[in-house]
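Shipment paperwork, digital attachment
Item: protein structure file
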Amino acid sequence: MDKISDVCFLVQDLDRAVQFYRDVVGFRLRRLAPGFADFFTVGATLALWQVDHMQRHLKLPPGPAQRGGWRAMAAVHVDSSDMVQSMHRELAARGVPFVAEPQAYPWNAYACYFTDPEDNLWEIYTWQSGGHANLIFSGEEDPQ
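Attachment content:
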């Protein structure tokens, strides 16, 4: 269990989610089937599965009512703060809704955050000098 191969977001509206990830964010669509789509990315597959389709085919009971707040986040690690800023500018120009502009955080990351049409959260980040391995968190600065 040392490598994630796929990230799958469960969505209500597959067409809207595919349009967002393909036409706005710019991922390359690999497969589109009833209730399911996935995209090429380096290192992991991004998949979208329509909730009602998943429940029907896996014979799952309805999920718990949404309790509010964020449900999932995927992250894209880049090499520099300049790249974070560049990706932010490019995606914002395409209409991607950002909830936090590029900025430095106490856990030694420089990042920005956006949401997809289903309110899944995305992070674009880089580690600042010194990286993240030896940080010690206390009080409010702990990202956990």
